[in-house]
C-alpha cells in the first residue's frame, strides 16, 4: 500500500483549485470534520457543543507528544487502518473527491477526515486519533493492527482556542494555561474537573507556520452557582 499516494489529497487538498499562491498557502483541507454548534464566542475562545463521533486512536511512542518520530509513527499507523488495513472484505465506492482511487488490498478504503486530534493521558503518554467518516457510524471495520482502537466520543461541550504556528509540547502547555486562566472569568461555563487537553491540527506537515490552523480544547460544563 502506498501511503504517500493515498495521503496526497490531504497533503495537497487544493493543489489544482487555488488561483494564486496566496490562496494555496491559506488553504485548509476541504475534508469532513467534527460537527458542532457554537454556543458562545469571545476574543480568547469559543464554546462549542460537539456532536458524537467515532475515532480511530493509537498511543504515541516517545516521551513528548509532538516529537517528529512519535507523531509520524502514530500518523502512519492510523493512516494504514484508514486506507485499508482493516477486517472488511468489501470495497466501497467513494462519496467525496478526497480520495479518488480504490484500495489496493481486500480491505475497505475510507475518506480522509480532519482534524487529527492528539490527547494527553496520565504521565507522559499521548494518543493520536483520526475522526472517522460519519457515514460509517458504529459499523466501522475492525483494525488489523492491535495498537489501533475504535471508540465513540460522546457529545460534549468544549472551550476551544485557535492558534497558528508549529505545535510543540511547550506551546501546548502555554496555550492550555492561557485557556484555563481565561475560563476562570467565564460566568456561564467552567472547565470540568480532571479535563485533559486536546489539540486539533487541521493542516498537513508541509504547511507554513503562519498559515497553520491549530486548536486547543478543554471540556467544560455549565456553572451551577
UniProtKB/TrEMBL annotation:
Signal peptide: none annotated. Pfam families: SOUL. InterPro entries: Reg_factor_effector_dom_sf, SOUL_heme-bd. Coiled coil: none annotated. Belongs to the HEBP family. This is SOUL heme-binding protein. It comes from Aquilegia coerulea.
Amino acid at each position: 500500500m502506498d501511503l504517500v499516494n493515498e495521503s496526497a489529497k490531504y497533503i495537497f487538498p487544493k493543489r489544482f483549485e487555488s488561483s494564486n499562491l496566496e490562496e494555496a498557502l491559506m488553504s485548509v483541507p476541504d475534508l469532513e470534520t467534527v460537527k458542532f454548534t457554537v454556543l458562545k464566542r469571545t476574543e480568547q475562545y469559543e464554546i462549542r457543543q460537539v456532536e458524537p463521533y467515532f475515532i480511530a486512536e493509537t498511543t504515541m511512542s516517545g516521551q513528548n507528544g509532538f516529537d517528529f518520530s512519535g507523531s509520524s509513527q502514530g500518523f502512519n499507523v492510523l493512516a494504514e487502518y484508514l486506507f485499508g488495513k482493516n477486517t472488511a472484505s468489501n470495497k466501497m465506492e467513494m462519496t467525496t473527491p478526497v480520495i479518488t482511487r480504490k484500495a489496493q488490498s481486500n480491505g475497505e478504503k475510507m475518506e480522509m477526515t480532519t482534524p487529527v486530534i492528539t490527547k494527553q493521558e496520565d504521565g507522559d503518554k499521548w494518543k493520536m486519533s483520526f475522526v472517522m467518516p460519519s457515514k460509517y457510524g458504529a459499523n466501522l471495520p475492525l483494525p488489523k493492527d492491535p495498537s489501533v482502537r475504535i471508540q465513540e466520543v460522546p457529545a460534549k461541550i468544549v472551550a476551544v482556542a485557535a492558534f497558528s504556528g508549529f505545535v510543540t509540547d511547550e506551546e501546548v502547555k502555554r496555550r492550555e494555561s492561557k485557556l484555563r486562566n481565561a475560563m476562570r472569568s467565564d460566568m456561564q461555563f467552567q472547565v470540568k474537573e480532571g479535563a485533559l487537553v486536546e489539540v486539533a491540527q487541521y493542516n498537513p506537515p508541509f504547511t507554513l507556520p503562519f498559515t497553520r490552523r491549530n486548536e486547543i480544547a478543554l471540556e467544560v460544563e455549565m456553572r451551577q452557582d
